[in-house]
Amino acid sequence: MATTDFAPVFEALRGAVKKQEKTLAVQSDKPDYYCLETRKPSPFPQHKGKSMFFCGVKVGKAYVSFHLLPLYMNPLLLKQVPPALKKRMQGNACFNFKTVPEKDLLKQLSDLATASLKDWKARGWA
Questions:
Q1: In this structure, are residues 39 and 15 in contact, taking their beta carbons and an 8 Å threshold?
Q2: What pTM did the predictor assign?
Q3: Residue 107, domain extent
Q4: CATH number at residue 30
Q5: Helix (H, G, I), strand (E, B) or coil at 5
Q6: pLDDT band at 43 (very low <50, low <70, confident <90, very high)
Q7: 99: Cβ contacts below 8 Å, ≥ 6 apart
């Protein structure tokens, strides 16, 4: 169950990628975990024909994590991460938030998700 303090953070981050539901499938939509994946089967043999994780928002003990897998898979997308978001990065594809992000950060996350989906569509993955 989502921590009450993190519920607004979770909802704000979830809202940053909600529009991608038009193309991607909702794998999970719970109060503490939201996940989008491809509708198409993965082209990678290790996925054994199943869909691929695209992004997720997860409530943790100390923060809410926003994972965007395409950043890990495409260095050019990773280079598009603005400096303000880079400060919140953990690894190559995760951003952590303790408070509701400012509107400009949410827009940057949304723009990254849109660019990522465009990339995956061009590759035939989504």
A1: no
A2: 0.91
A3: 4-122
A4: 3.90.1150
A5: helix
A6: confident
A7: 9
